[in-house]
Design brief:
Layout: E1 11-18, E2 24-27, E3 33-37, E4 44-53, E5 56-66, H1 92-109, E6 117-118, E7 132-140, E8 145-149, H2 169-172, H3 175-183, E9 193-199, E10 202-208, H4 215-228, E11 231-235, E12 243-246, E13 253-257, E14 262-266, H5 276-290, E15 297-301, H6 309-313, E16 318-323, H7 326-338, E17 344-348, E18 367-370, H8 378-382, H9 384-387, E19 391-396, H10 399-411, E20 417-423, E21 433-438
Parallel strand pairs: 3-5, 6-20, 10-11, 15-16, 15-18, 16-17, 18-19
Antiparallel strand pairs: 1-2, 1-4, 2-3, 4-5, 7-8, 7-9, 9-10, 11-12, 13-14, 19-21, 20-21
Amino acid sequence: MSRKNKRREPAEITIDSLSHDGRGVGRDVNGKVTFVDFALPGERVLYQPQRGRKDYGLGTMIEVLEAAENRTKPRCEYFGICGGCSLQHLSSEDQIAAKQDQLMSNLRKIGHVQPEIILPPLQRDVWGYRRKARLGVRDVEKKGAVLVGFREKNSSFVTHMSSCEVLHPNISSHIPVLAKALQQISCRKRIPQVEVAQGDNGVIMIVRHLEPLTSEDVAVLGRFAKASGVALYLQPGNLETVHPLYPEEGLELIYRHAGYDIEMIFKPTDFIQVNGSINEALITQVCETLAPQPNETVLDLFCGMGNFTLPLARSGAKVSGVEGDRGLIARANLNAKHNGLDNIVFHIGDLFAEDAEYAWTGQSYHKMLLDPPRSGALEMCKRMHEFAPKRIVYVSCNPATLARDADVLVNTHGYTLKQVGVVDMFPHTAHVESIAVFE
């Protein structure tokens, strides 16, 4: 066996901190920074070294020799194999504390900013919260079964699971029955995924198939849908090919914001916030923080299908929503009409073009909401002198890009970072959602 491929002997290591993706961080016997899966700060563990890089090492934990006080027993029997969660071995309180530490570190090191107030963490449901997901499908002949679930950690394999603790129960409970139905499909090896979406009024499952289904295949899936009480859709090609199988007329999914008397219509392929209870709490916090008045103008950038735009418009303020996806803008207009709101104007615009001119650019607004993807809103932040809002609320799903953008807002445009806090949108994962307020 060559030295390059020689298996390294297990070793002990003391863990000092958590990485941004939830791995324990320590230094090996040679002083090299090493990342160890499922290890926690304060622990001494036995781990199997894996091939890393010149400047850092990787490892998989074998045994906890000295456990941290905040280590807890994972609730899910598939934890450690399934790649859906990475922090079930850490208490929920300590998970959110670690995420807050990461957020503050990013703001300090990347953004060179310090908030005046750190908000209490926004937390709601930590189990059964996930109402949207894409599940992998794999026909495994050796197991004599079709597997449906999240991918295994660091692998393309599908976890052999019969339930999921973070999926909404109305989705999780159907996994084993769905797997049995797919096992009867003639082209089961050509079914890569099932997309699931839970609304307040039901569940839609979309079966992606790379080969045509036979009449018997269609009958099998129809029987599954009817017996399970789910709406089943098929996707033979791109997103435009998605169509209902059962019921024939399909299902119009909705979710509600009770506090603002809003009912949102959405498609199962649309982007929505996966945690319904947190989404409702976050909308309340955004609306109360921005506090739009009837005589004010509000600009909502990255508005999607109006998740925040419509509740903000309940104030009577004139709200402009901007989004780059035409389909989401169509849904936003539909939802504004559905909820009887005529004080909203939606625009399609490239929010990653720094100098683009649109009907909504070249003018000022009283207040602004930013809710960008992981890449952040740098181009729009650079133009903040143009929009000149007195208050900005920034909802972020990436603390690094939030910190980068905060640097521009504070150190270039003169805003003050008044408040910041973490939002527990994805419990038991390393994902960090947050909210920041600039004035």
